[in-house]
Amino acid sequence: MRSIAIYPSSVKAHNSHHAAGQGIRGVTTMTIAIIGTGNMGSGLARLLASKGIDVAIGHRDPAKAAALAAEIGPRAQGGGSEAAAKLADIVILAVNYGSAEEALKGAGDLTGKIVVDISNPITPDYKALTVGHTTSAAEEIQKLVPGARVVKAFNTIFSQLLPSEARGGREVQVFLAGDDEAAKEAVSGVVSSAGFAPVDAGPLSNARYLEPVGEINIHFGFFLGWGTSAAPAWIKAA
Questions:
Q1: What is the CATH classification number for the domain harbouring 55?
Q2: How many CB atoms lie within 10 A of CB 221?
Q3: Which end of the chain is more exposed for a tag (fewer CB within 10 A), N or C?
């Protein structure tokens, strides 16, 4: 099992190219649970396993998770959602927002665990958000699992950018919002180990702004001709 680097909150995105465990404090090892076998769930499972990280894949249909795990190889195991979540301290909720409540119920007791919400609460035509302004999908998910520590991440990139080769060596940022600093640091380590640049986007309430960023990226990708290689980035211009 590979070590995942847990970054202190002062680490900036430009340090994210450092390999896990090289001169970074707080290195730990863990299994990552991924609930869902869609494009993002399967893509994250393949990516993390390719980086030497053990993944436990969960699905309401255990056979689907087991089949994906068998396809990925020895770094992956698959079964029911609750069984997968029990194996991990970090649980990536890789389902659409409309399915989140059911998926969380299926994952069992998540008290004390880090739950990573990657969803965008979008309408069926992909052109608008169903939640916003005064709350966010991430905040609503936190209400569903009050004993867990929810972190928003991975909602501003398409699944097509998950394979390392799809990025062509370019730095792609992943924005993180959460109220628990230790949880954000842990997820930052996962993001970095996956080959992305983690960017601290503040408290969980800032997911209200990250989710519209995810939505405008969908517009760029699907409706404005940019394609699924589109991804937002924050830079310091001076």
A1: 3.40.50.720
A2: 19
A3: C
